[in-house]
Amino acid sequence: MTRLFLAGDVNLMGVTDPGSPFRCVRDQFQSADVAFLNLECSLHLPTGHSVENEGFFVDPDVGAAVLTGVNVAAVGLANNVTYGETPIAATLARLDAAGIAHTGAGVDRGAARAPAIVERDGVKFGFLQRTSVYWPTNHEAAKSAAGVAVIRGHTAYRVRAHKERPEIPPMNRPGIPPEVITWADPKYLDDFRKDVAALRAQVDVLVVSCHWGLWKDVLGYMTEIAHAAIDAGADIVIGHGPHFFLPVEVYRGKPILYGLGSFSFHTGHGGRKHGDWVGLMANVRFDEHRQIADARLRFVRHNDDNETVPCLLADETHSLDELIRTSSARGAQLVRDEDEICIDLANSPGNEDAE
């Protein structure tokens, strides 16, 4: 069996002890063949920059030591805080020096769209990351400008013409709210499909990582992107960005983890301390045929020492009920196994067209 460890948002701003953030989950990293996470900070300390401005910045030596200390193999950089030519260049250089593969940001569009490929014991893992949450100016990588790899999303507001659910009032009521509709830009989505298909031909295991979302909603464009990724050859899709855990979906027999939430996120915008969030970490095992044999989740929180701490399911009954309920609605059956949550790929309704 080959084991893959996946985590969501990691922001190391304010960390001074490289051993502290992952001290309580070190075994999770060490027992995996490959570990991947979304690095939501730059390994760069800009001159004259304050935390009131956009971007999360970490001492590059400390940040790199945190990642290498638990053998992180690859990170995604396509997110809303990997911003600016100098921070991007500095982060890429520091990751390269540390031997950590990366995807999602680069010195130009081609480099930002390029995958991260890691080989372990003859198995090639490919990672591709995109963001739909980014700033409108000088953030998206261009033909000759640094930035992040994106899939543009669009939004429209439609007044409901029909009574689709009992709780929705009829149109003759003044003040009825509009329905929010989102979709992925067709050109960007087509380029994304081509990138996934090209990577599929190079690797044994393909992971697509997406920075997206708003609160706890799974929006239409998110499902569109996730399904496109699997149709083009992805084995698993993971999402992050809203800092909440989101539902699981099984599509064509493949898991979509819409939101892993925060994995290490103590300090955010404006230097504000984040609350007692709950996120997910994922362990996925692949058999000798490079097919998913087992996919498991576990809740995590953080303590006052900024350590990521695995949760006991007995302490997370509300979160577990929410995850099971919302995932079941999307065709994923989740089964409790001690303190882990197993995704039942074989018996999930979303598996019906996996053949």
Description of the structure:
There is one protein chain. With 355 residues, this protein is α/β, with parallel strands linked by helices. It has a single domain, classed as Purple Acid Phosphatase, chain A, domain 2 (4-Layer Sandwich). It contains 7 helices and 20 strands. It has helices at 26-30, 60-69, 85-98, 109-113, 186-200, 220-231, 317-328, and strands at residues 2-11, 34-39, 74-76, 101-103, 105-106, 116-120, 123-131, 147-148, 153-158, 179-184, 205-211, 236-240, 248-251, 254-257, 262-265, 279-286, 292-302, 308-310, 334-337, 340-343. The radius of gyration is 20 Å and the shape is globular. The two termini are 22 Å apart. The model has no long low-confidence stretch (mean pLDDT 89).
Specify the overall morphology: globular
Q: What string, H for helix and E for strand, traces the elements in order? A: EHEHEHEEHEEEEEHEHEEEEEEEHEE
Top CATH class: Alpha Beta
Our count of domains comes out at 1
Q: Describe the largest sheet.
A: 10 strands, mixed
Total beta strands: 20
What oligomeric arrangement do these chains adopt?
single chain
How many helix segments? 7
Structural class by secondary-structure content: alpha/beta
Strand content bin? 25-35%
Mean pLDDT level: 89
Can you give the helix content as a percent range?
10-25%
Q: For the CA atoms, what is the radius of gyration?
A: 20 Å
CA-CA gap between termini:
22 Å
CATH overall fold name: Purple Acid Phosphatase, chain A, domain 2
